[in-house]
Amino acid sequence: MQVQHRWRQEAAVLLTIATILSSGLTPARGQATAALRADTVKAGPYDMGKMWTFDSPPKEYFAKTYGFKPDDKWFEETRLASLRFADYCSASFVSASGLVMTNHHCARESGTGVARKGEDLNNTGFYAKTLAEERKVPGLFVDQLVKIEDITKRVQDAMGTGSEREQLRGREQAFAAIKQEYTARADWKGLELQTITLYNGGRYALYGFKRYTDVRLVFMPELQLGFFGGDPDNFTYPRYALDCSFFRVYDNGKPLQTKHFFKFNTNGVRENEPIFVIGNPGSTERLKTVAELEFDRDLKIPYILTLIRNRSAALQAYNATAKSDSVLNEIFSFENSYKAYSGQLDGLRDPYLIARKAAFERQFKADALLEQSAKREAQVGGSSATNGVPATSPGSSARGGATTGRADVWADISENVTAMRQLFNDNTYLSPNPLARGELLTFAHLLAQYGEIYLAQPRQAERMRTMLEMPEITSRTLEESYLAAHLAEAQAALGNDDPYVKAALTAENGQLRTPKEAAAYLLRTTKLLDKAFVEDMITRGGAITSSTDPMLVLARAGQKRYEAASQKMQQINARQEVLSSQLGRYVYDVYGNNVPPDATFSLRINDGIVKGYPYNGTVAPVITTFAGLYDRNYSFGDKYPWSLPARWKNPPAELLKQPMCFITTNDIIGGNSGSPMINKNREAVGLVFDGNMESLPGSFIFVPDKNRSISVHAGGMVAAMRYIYKADRLILELTTGK
Fold first, then answer.
1. What's the average model confidence in pLDDT over 405-416?
2. How far apart are CA 278 and CA 607, in angstroms?
3. pLDDT one-digit tens code per residue, 91-148
4. Which residues, 6+ apart, have CB-to-CB distance to 7 below 8 Å?
5. What is 4-141+213-287+603-736's CATH topology?
6. Which of 666, 46, 24, 23 lies closest to 356, judged by CA?
7. Is it the case that residue 223 has pLDDT exceeding 60?
8. 191 vs 737, which has greater pLDDT?
9. Where does the chain cross the membrane (predicted)?
């Protein structure tokens, strides 16, 4: 999941599979669309995934599925050995001396940040031969989850039954009060507190983290090993990447001594062996209704893909001469997100998957109504056929619960989505977003807004004035490319007759310029790059509303439409959040812990098995070897991104047969990067770093038949350290745990 910590930066990029023809469907899924009857499709038992929480670990499920019943101690030790790496990845302790394992792509920025003058750690990698050589990473921290408290009733009571905004305000006030109260408690003192929303608000928890801030780099391979194959190999399998890094936590200047860690098992993994992934999956949307998914399919994701592709193209053209590493990282991030969102869109366009979501929705709705009926009967002294029968899947009987409100919340959500569709264009294409419209047009929009406020509410304008800072345009070429892309996107979505498009493209002679010509004209003639002009406009305030500066004229053409749409959308979003919370309550009331909540970058444990799958007319091997790494290197003529550093060029024969990566059926998403893969003995056997193309619809549905998680093999990491890096100290620590 290369550069997957960027899942959080929705303003910078915004993820997941291939088309029906290229997704390699099983016969059941591969039938012709015309022959598919939606009413015959049934929901799968794990469509909502397997991202179980440590609030209520799935002991009985593990026992039933794998004949393995871990006790409370097993789950506690597993939780305490697992970490959150900064605020974007996962990690784990892998020795008693505070050694931490995570991905290379999670650690890349932190690791290269400790480079000294003349060093290029992307090209050379890093290994500290002694403790004294381990380098502290400024600002880096890891969090260990040590306390969990259920706060559901308190939060839901605080929300009450008022308007949507009143309910959300009540929730935020409850969060603040709970944090303040627990901060003062002796048993929670010194912990980092976070309120966790589960089931969209069906449950709430307070998590307490022990934060470690003295974190030092120990080992990091070269970029060409950590990101071998680059974007072309991203989300694919077979895979050959040494996507690992190791750090160490220090306490009072000495390596942290901990009893909670995963000892390395380098002896391999067996096919069909159960494997558990512990990490912090970032975000899934499996509880979304079909109406919401269709909105994403028809409008939201196509827009995101167009935005990403055009901005990436602009950056690539710019960087052809700029040669900037920071720009290259941004391009990596865009390309990663484009591939992921493309997969998600293709998954949403798969009629089988949407039919499967619809089947779940029908069953869920029926079970919710049944549960409500049972509750009413119980209240009047009746009996229910479902009393005392716990659900085991969305298709099972409903269990008793406290569902409140009307059962047909789906109709309200559908009505909301219809309103969102009507507002989408104005709220999206006219939004003051630098990524979408460029820095200067976004600034012009804010100036236009300031001018209106200046005339109507001078005091409020004074407060806004402090936020009006001229943007720093580091590249006019790049700024022009972003603006041209925005104008082309607006033209395609809104049409040539739209007033905003006319204002943007119409020349003095009445003819329409191309978006590229219009962007060049706007940047050439605007005075918003003139500090004196801007300061004069701000000082005179109201003059902005009548200025003939072409950038301000264009901003005014879209400003009021956007503000009207935005105001309505805020109301709709508030309503949608409350409705989603109600839906989450239904899920928990009906199915309880048998259906796990959506990912929220909170600690989860998920289960799977080591298993291959058919692909491309053949079979994917469970394990890849270093020999495959060299085959790929030779096949591409040692060209980037399949090139190798000099010290990797002449490997010892023994290395070639060592395992490098392997696959399992585990349920992961962005944020799981850096998660340890452990066996029943709590031994680390691998390190998650990616999923295959078939895993990408996992954002909205988990279909494990070809979904695979990809990990670096524990034996592969040690083999690289032994035969290439000569990291004997680290090998000894990993294999003994000391």
1. 82
2. 9
3. 999 999 999 999 999 998 888 899 999 999 999 999 999 999 999 999 999 999 999 9
4. 15, 88, 282, 283, 669, 670, 671
5. Thrombin, subunit H (2.40.10)
6. 46
7. yes
8. 191
9. none
Answer whether 689's CB lies under 8 Å from 242's CB: no
Handedness of CA 231, 235, 239, 242 (dihedral sign): positive
Band of pLDDT at residue 38, cut at 50, 70 and 90: low
Q: Which residue reads 């569709």 in tokens? A: 421
Residue 299 has which token pair?
């409008």
DSSP type of residue 513: P
DSSP H stretches of helix in 457-549 = 458-465, 476-494, 499-505, 515-525, 531-540
CA distances 709 to 29, 503, 596, Å, are 21, 49, 19
Cα separation, 399 vs 143, whole angstroms: 36
Asked if residue 30 has pLDDT above 60, the reply is no
CA separation (Å) from 19 to 344, 348, 555? 10, 10, 38
Sequence spans of domains, the chain: 4-141+213-287+603-736, 391-597
Q: Which residue has the tokens 């026992």?
A: 63
To the nearest 5 percent, what fractions of the chain are helix, strand and coil? 50, 15, 35
Length of the chain: 738
Distances (CA, A) of 200 to 196, 491, 514, 570: 10, 36, 45, 18
Give 677's strand partners: 277, 686
Give the residue among 267, 262, 268 at the shortest CA–CA distance from 246.
Answer: 262
Q: Which residues contact 623 (CB under 8 A, 6 or more apart)?
A: 268, 269, 659, 660, 661, 662, 713
What does the pLDDT look like over 610-642, one tens digit per residue?
999 999 999 999 999 999 999 999 999 999 999
Task: Specify the amino acid at residue 668.
Answer: I
Residues 33 and 41 sit within 8 Å (Cβ to Cβ): no
**What pLDDT does residue 43 have?**
92
Q: Are 713 and 673 in contact (CB under 8 A)?
A: no
pLDDT of residue 646: 97
- 648-677 per-position pLDDT tens digit: 999 999 999 999 999 999 999 999 999 999
Burial class (CB in 10 A: 0-12, 13-18, 19+), 513: middle
Place of tokens 């929480």: 53
